Automatic annotation (TrEMBL):
PROSITE patterns: HTH_CROC1 (PS50943)
Name of the protein described by the UniProt record: HTH cro/C1-type domain-containing protein
Native organism: Thioclava dalianensis
Any GO molecular function: DNA binding
Gene3D superfamilies from the UniProt entry: lambda repressor-like DNA-binding domains (1.10.260.40)
Residue ranges constituting the HTH cro/C1-type domain according to the UniProt record: 8-26
């Protein structure tokens, strides 16, 4: 059993796609009868199914066209499916050829730079200043003991080596006396033996140092910080 649906005049107008004034005209012109309302005297709510049937049956077709509306009298009717029309084929237009890009001429090569007198003077002045800085730095390093002549260094090392040899050779009699007393030997024989062995050691060491000195460069490069 279906349940009746009760609506107001505004809701009926929305259901049928008309204005509220059209519903009022249907009510005044007796297109909507008393049995389409829930209360006597065309008052109360409107019975939707009865109202739609009365509008479909009692409405004048000329009035509907004059109002410029197409009254919706089927509540559950689905709107017709709209099939889109295929787009019209556009005529193909000829492609416009791209304009050729103008090639830019390569920039002319810069000419050789002229060596001016002013530039030469600036370079000479810079070289002179650098030379002065090197000389001053070397003198400062020599004063602080960081730099010395190679010949002076060799002379000092030879003097130190000679002094050490004299010290050891002068101590040989003391060594001989100690050994003679320890082993009960003649001190003279022990001293003679020590001096002979010491000469052999000194000769061998001198030959080795002479060979090593020949491989050492006469001039040694020293790195000195320059403060410009």
């Amino acid at each position: 059993m279906s349940v009746e649906r009760f609506v107001s005049q505004a809701e009926l107008a929305r259901e049928l796609g008309v204005s509220r004034a059209a519903v009022s005209q249907w009510k005044a012109k007796d297109i909507l009868r008393d049995d389409a309302f829930s209360e006597p005297g065309k008052s109360g709510k409107i019975i939707l199914s009865v109202a739609i049937a009365q509008v479909r049956r009692n409405r004048d077709v000329g009035q509907s066209l004059g109002n410029g509306i197409a009254t919706r009298t089927a509540v559950e009717a689905d709107p017709p499916e709209v099939i889109p029309e295929p787009p019209e084929a556009q005529p193909s237009l000829p492609m416009r050829a791209a304009a050729p890009v103008a090639e830019t001429a390569p920039a002319s090569a810069a000419g050789p730079k002229v060596d001016r007198i002013e530039d030469q003077l600036k370079r000479a002045k810079l070289e002179e200043q650098l030379r002065r800085n090197r000389i001053q730095a070397a003198e400062e390093a020599a004063r602080q003991g960081q730099l010395m002549a190679a010949e002076d260094a060799r002379e000092q090392m030879a003097r130190i080596a000679g002094m050490m040899l004299q010290i050891f050779e002068g101590a040989l009699p003391d060594f001989a006396s100690a050994m003679a007393a320890q082993f009960d030997l003649p001190q003279r024989d022990v001293l003679h033996l020590l001096r002979a062995e010491f000469k052999k050691v000194r000769k061998t060491a001198s030959m080795k140092e002479r060979m090593r000195a020949d491989t050492v460069e006469r001039a040694v490069t020293a790195l000195v910080d320059l403060e410009v």
